[in-house]
Amino acid sequence: MSGEKFDLVAVDETNAVSVGDVFRSIYGDDFPVKDVYDPGTLWREVREGRVAATLAFDGEGCPVGYISLFKSAPNPRLWEGGNLIVHPACKYSDLSSILFRHYLKPENYGPLEADGFFGEAVCHHYFTQVGCVKSGMTDCAVELDLLDGSSFKDTRAGSGRVACVLNFLEFTRPDAPVHLPERYAEIVQRLSMPLSPRSFLPADAPLPLNGVTVREDRYHGAARTWKVYVREIGGDWREVVDDLLREAGARDVVSLQVTLNTAIPHLGAAVEVLRGRGFFLGGLAPRWFGNDGLLMQKVLGREPDFDGIKLYSRTAKDLLAFIRMDREETSRLAGGGVSA
Q1: Residues 128/134, Cβ–Cβ less than 8 Å
Q2: Do residues 71 and 205 both lie within one domain?
Q3: Are 111 and 324 in contact (CB under 8 A)?
Q4: CATH at 237
Q5: Domain total in the chain
Q6: pLDDT in tens, 268-290
Q7: Which domain-ending residue is among 114, 133, 163?
Q8: Do 67 and 103 form a contact (C-beta atoms < 8 A)?
Q9: Greatest CA separation found in the chain?
Q10: Is residue 110 part of a domain?
Q11: Is 138 within a domain?
Q12: Are 62 and 189 in a shared domain?
């Protein structure tokens, strides 16, 4: 079916109803983001600039594919790519590759202001990772146990947890220096090498005595994942971290991430507080705040499923090896054993 022709069309008010049809071909009515089944809500998200989406139609005019960009990071000029769906009837066609290549070109979405695109490529198979690397995206972080494997229709995910590789494609140059703690400086600079040039400074200032930590959250209850984005770190940092861990336990969170703004000169001291409570490196989150972010993570209540992680690039493999060593060290600092 490699020669089959498809018509790619931007989602608008007239065709938004077809998006639900594509998702039902795979998930029935069980896809966790219900907006895809509600054409009015989806069209409003597109119209108001929070989503950019494309439908694929076959030669008979039937909807057979979908891909979207959406805003999920603190930086409103970052777009996450995801929800690449192909109808089972087109499983053996080139449609997945066609949609993937389409999404990597911002000009396909009209006047789209973007510092970059990012994605989270699942690690229970290689397909998405290979596509990202071959399309010029850079592997920047490995997010352990991020997703619930039982939520995938793809049986290769099993019933355990699924890790993801955070990959990134940069369009503009950063204009602020990146402050890095000494222990992570070498590996983070290595991760940033394929990106635009950056200016690096040591993050060696002490924690402030005053001020309030400023953060925003993304909590995904069904996945038992909680992402916390920290724009400013105040004198209350230790209490903030302790409160996060208490609340994560109450919410039965498995994957807890804290991404720190690298514009902060006392980032290193903040990282040491996290490490003392069992957090370890995830990697670089480019342009997360306009500035880059440093991703720290903790897996709660279980051992990470390292054996289930399939990685394609040498960059991701080397990063995972570093993450494993860092986790072993921070587990000892936090008292050892499985984190509760």
Answers
A1: no
A2: no
A3: no
A4: 3.40.630
A5: 2
A6: 999 999 999 999 999 999 999 99
A7: 114
A8: yes
A9: 66
A10: yes
A11: no
A12: no
Predicted TM-score of the model (pTM): 0.91
Q: Any idea what the CATH number is for the domain that residue 79 is in?
A: 3.40.630.30
What radius of gyration, in Å, describes the C-alpha atoms of the chain? Answer: 20
| CA distance linking residue 104 with residue 127, whole number of Å | 16
Instruction: Tell me the pLDDT of the chain averaged across its residues.
Output: 92
> 340 pLDDT band (50/70/90 cuts)?
very low
294/187 same-domain check: yes
% of the chain exceeding 90 in pLDDT: 80
Whether residues 107 and 185 fall in one domain: no
φ, ψ of residue 122 to 5 degrees: the values are: -65, 150
287-to-24, 160, 267 alpha-carbon distances in Å: 35, 31, 16
Please state, in angstroms and rounded to a whole number, the distance separating the CA atoms of residues 316 and 167: 10
For the segment 51-68, what is each residue's pLDDT rounded down to a tens digit? 999 999 999 999 999 999
Residue 314, domain member (yes or no): yes
Please tell me what DSSP assigns to residue 150.
G
Q: E strand or H helix at 209, and its extent?
A: none
Domain finish residue from 94, 114, 134: 114
Kindly report the backbone phi and psi dihedral angles of residue 54, in degrees, each rounded to the nearest multiple of 5, phi listed first: -135, 135
Q: What residues contact residue 71 under an 8 Å CB cut-off, 6+ apart?
A: 50, 51, 78, 79, 80
Cα–Cα dist 312/126, whole Å: 6
Residues 90 and 234 in one domain: no
Which residue in this structure is represented by tokens 């609340």?
247
Q: Is residue 119 part of a domain?
A: no
The packing angle between helices 237-251 and 267-275, to 10°, is 40
- Residue 92, domain extent: 1-114
- 122 and 128 Cβ atoms separated by less than 8 Å: yes
Q: What is the pLDDT of residues 184-227, one digit of tens each?
A: 999 999 999 999 999 999 999 999 999 999 999 999 998 999 99
Q: Which residues fall within 8 angstroms of residue 134, CB to CB, at 6 or more apart?
A: none
**What's the CA dihedral at 10, 11, 17, 19 to 10 degrees?**
80
Q: Report the run of H or E that residue 100 belongs to, with start and end.
A: helix 95-103
Q: How far apart are CA 106 and CA 237, in angstroms?
A: 38
Confirm if 39 and 19 have CB atoms less than 8 A apart.
yes
